[in-house]
Amino acid sequence: MDKDAxxxxxxxxxxVADAANAKTPKLQxxxxxxxxxxxxxxxxxxxxxxxxxxxxxxxxxxxxQHLARELCHLGVKVPYKQIVAAARQRVEGVEVWIxxxxxxxxxxxxxxxxxxxxxxxxxxxxxxxxGRVDQADVRDLLHLSINSSSADIPLKALGVFCRLHTQLSTxxxxxxxxxxxxxxxxxxxxxxxxxxxxxxxxxxxxEQLLPIIERAVVLEASALSGCNLSMFSAYxxxxxxxxxIGLPGAQQLPADAVAALMHKALxxxxxxxxxxxxxxxxxxxISADQLASIVEAAAANGDHFSLRLLAAAxxxxxxxxxxxxxxxxxxxxxxxxxxxxxxxQQQLIVMCWCLL
Length: 356
What we know:
Elements (H helix, E strand, L loop, with lengths): L2 H19 L3 H17 L10 H6 L7 H9 L6 H9 L7 H8 L8 H6 L17 H12 L5 H7 L11 H14 L2 H10 L10 H20 L13 H7 L2 H4 L3 H14 L2 H7 L10 H13 L3 H8 L7 H4 L4 H17 L2 H8 L3
C-alpha cells in the first residue's frame, strides 16, 4: 500500500470514530458521508478489507447499529475472533458487529450458538438444538453475554447454560466477575456459573475480591452522579456491590478493609453502599479510631441515615473511653449530636451526649 493509501486508511479510521461518537443525527449523517467517500475513493487500495479497519472499529465502544450496518454494506468485515477478543477486553457494545453481520449474511465465521443469541429470533434461543457445542464457544458466549451493553442478552443466555458444560479457571472467573461488575450483570453471572456447576467464585480470596468491591463502589457513585436523582437515591440498594459482598471471600474481608470501604462510600456519597458494607461480619470489629474517621465523614455531610447505621457498631460506644482527651473525638461527637438534633433523632442524641 502506497503513502496515499495509508493516509486514506488513517482518515477512514478517524472518520469512523467521529461517526460513532457523533451526538446528533445530523453529525452522524455527515460523518457517515465522509466514511462513504473515503472507503470508495481509492478502490484499488481496498480500504474496507484492510485489517486495520476492524481493529480500529473494535476499539470504539457502542458503535451505533445503523453505522455498523453501513460499514458492512461498504465491505467492512469484522472477524468473529476479534469481536470476542474485544469483549474480553471489556470494550462495551462490540456485540453490534455480530448482530449486524448475522442479519446481512456475513456471519460465516460465527458459531451457530452465538449467532442465535444475537439474532432477532432470540426468543427461541433456549429451545433450539445446537448439537455438540465446542467448549471454546461456551466460554466465548460467557464473555460476550456478560460484556453486553444490553440487559436482555445475559438473561437470554442464562436459559441455555443449564445444557452446557465447560471448565473455567479461577483467573477466568475473576476476569468475568470484573466484567460483570462493569456492566451490572453480577447476578446473572453468578446464576450462570451455578448452572455450569462452577464453584470458582466461592474460592476467590478476600485479596482478589477487594479491588472488585472497591470498583463496584466507584461505579455505584458514577451511576448516581450521572443522573438527576432525589435526595434519597443515594440510599438505593447497590446491585453490583450486594452481589459481590455475598461471596464467601467477601465475607472474610478484614476490619481494616471494611473500614476503608465504608469511608470510600461516604466520601463518594453512596450511602446505600454503606448499608451493605455494614452487613459484613468484620464491620463489628472496626476499631474506635477507624470508626471515628468514618463517623466524622458522615457527620460533616449531615448524613444522619448513615450515622444511625454507624451508631450500632460496638466501637461507637468506645469513642469516649479510647479517645477521651482527644479534641478530634469531641469534635466528632459534637458534629454527630448536631446532625441527630437536626434530624430529630432523640434516642441517638442521648447516646451521643453520654460520650461528651
